[in-house]
Write a structure and sequence with these properties.
Two copies of one chain form a homodimer.
Chain A (H helix, E strand, L loop, with lengths): L4 H14 L3 E5 L5 H9 L5 E6 L2 H11 L3 H4 L1 E5 L2 H7 L4 E6 L6 H10 L3 E10 L20 H16 L3 E6 L5 E6 L16
Parallel strand pairs in A: 1-2, 1-4, 2-3, 4-5
Antiparallel strand pairs in A: 5-7, 6-7
The structure holds S-adenosylmethionine (2 copies).
The site of one S-adenosylmethionine has 20 residues of chain B, from helix 2 and strand 2.
Chain lengths: 197, 197
């Protein structure tokens, strides 16, 4: 499913603030999020989207080829965990929005392969996942979603407990996590503690 | 009232992304938001807080003086609209959180006095104001808030319609607006339109 206008505009604002040279999107769909980001990129900024569906690459390229944003956008087709083994670079901004069961593996792979810039901002979508991560399965109106719900809960807890990561989950649409690599200059705990799920 | 941990952590993430040299906070209270921002500032970053209450300056300075963040923080006492006439500089990040009836005047003064960096990000707090801007006064459980509710509605519409401003209102706590100066390089409308109140 496509992201919504508020979240797309939020991503655009973050991109304006960050001024990233290299952006990675994992899970593109029709490119709505990718174009919101592309519109806010600096002149020398690029965005790479990974998607499993080859038709989407053809379709998005066809729609965006007449706009300057199209020239800043590269699309890599294949399962994201495979593509993450082949892409190169240091990403300043990462938008995770593909298979909800693989979020942890995406971040692990990005860290293992050293694809993250030191001051990277990772945005992970759907981290409130319609409330499933916080609810007992007694309340599952769509039991098929339970697997993703559990995976998202594990992902959120894994990020929270990871010694190198820091996050905040903001209640935009279905939940948006902002995740960064910790690099506090002092060894004392921060004055203002992290608010996490 | 102080901001909450989620919003403070959100401000901290934005500050990490923006890496501002000069931050302005309008309305400080006990300095919770100011310290969240100060923790994320680059080595040469500074934050200036404006507050009407002289006791808060003494109190916050006393608490923060033993931390490195204290050295990055300057507090100016007085009505914000007066202080905005005397401060100098170009602010990269502005956090507006003082008198809800004066938000429009704060932004107008910042623009008139040319205090905003070209790529400034302005964060305005309480722009959903407990729902008052969107509700008829029939539903006012606290009629004393109606004045601020109307002022916030006018502020949101003024930003939306301002030819030089662009915003998104994100539903964090009591509503947080992210506002920037428009600078699209082309004259065509953006591919991804702004989502506004
Ligand atoms: C929620 S949509 C992405 C929405 C998009 N980020 C936006 O801003 O509108 C999820 C996308 O992830 C893709 N996807 C799902 N599983 C994948 C996988 N294992 N590898 C790569 N892409 C995958 C789907 O084809 C779909 O296009
Ligand atoms: C909501 S609190 C600020 C909370 C703070 N930003 C934080 O992050 O915790 C509002 C503050 O604005 C101050 N204030 C109210 N009206 C003001 C005015 N006209 N000029 C300057 N400060 C004002 C109050 O004294 C109060 O400390």
């Amino acid at each position: 499913m496509s992201t919504d206008p508020t979240e797309a505009q939020f991503m655009k604002m973050l991109t304006f603030m960050k001024q990233p040279k290299q952006v990675l999107e994992i899970g593109m769909f029709t490119g709505y999020g990718a174009m919101a980001i592309a519109e806010a990129l600096p002149a020398d900024g690029k965005i790479t989207s990974l998607d499993i569906d080859p038709y989407l690459k053809t379709w998005v390229e066809d729609v965006s080829k007449d706009f300057p944003e199209g020239a800043k956008h590269e699309i890599v087709v294949g399962p994201a965990l495979d593509s993450l083994q082949t892409i190169e670079g240091k990403y300043d901004l990462v938008f995770i929005d593909a298979n909800k069961a693989e979020y942890k593996a995406y971040v692990e792979t990005l860290m293992e392969r050293d694809l993250l810039a030191k001051d990277v901002m990772i945005i992970a979508d759907n981290t409130l996942y319609v409330g499933y991560p916080m609810l007992s399965e007694t309340y599952d109106t769509q039991p098929a979603r339970r697997g993703f719900g559990d995976a998202v809960r594990e992902f959120n807890a894994w990020v929270r407990d990871h010694p190198k990561l820091e996050q905040v989950i903001v209640p935009i649409r279905d939940g948006v996590s902002m995740i960064r690599l910790k690099c506090l200059s002092t060894s004392r705990p921060p004055l203002v503690k992290a608010a996490v799920a």
